[in-house]
Design a protein that fits this description.
The structure is a single chain. The protein is an alpha+beta fold. The chain has a domain of 63 residues. It is 26% helix and 44% strand. Strands 2-3-1-4 form a four-stranded antiparallel beta sheet, with helices on one face. The chain is globular, with a radius of gyration of 13 Å.
Length: 93
């Protein structure tokens, strides 16, 4: 199998959510899901009225399958309003 690069976008419940704490929790959940310590890139994307979205880009093995279970586990966090996989690409190289 090959690797895929995923980008997930997490919308917090409110502008008061501590984005650094949320990032730490989400990265921990991703590591559990992919069963390895992968490099991750984080971006904070302004949305509106002080609300920011957290985008995390990471690599996982294609054999793991759908990222739906990861989305569902992150959506259970009380400070998360929504989670969406916004990009999936096969890794080259």
């Amino acid at each position: 199998m090959t690797d895929v690069v995923l980008t997930i976008k997490i919308m917090p419940e409110s502008p008061e959510v501590n984005m650094e704490d949320l990032e730490t929790k989400v990265k921990s959940e991703i590591k559990k899901f992919i069963n390895e310590d992968s490099d991750m890139k984080t971006e904070i994307e302004p949305v509106a009225f002080g609300l920011n979205a957290l985008k995390i880009i990471f690599v996982m093995d294609e054999s793991i399958g759908s990222p739906d279970p990861l989305e569902e586990s992150i959506e259970k966090f009380e400070e998360v309003a929504s989670v969406e996989v916004v990009d999936v690409r096969r890794a080259l190289g």
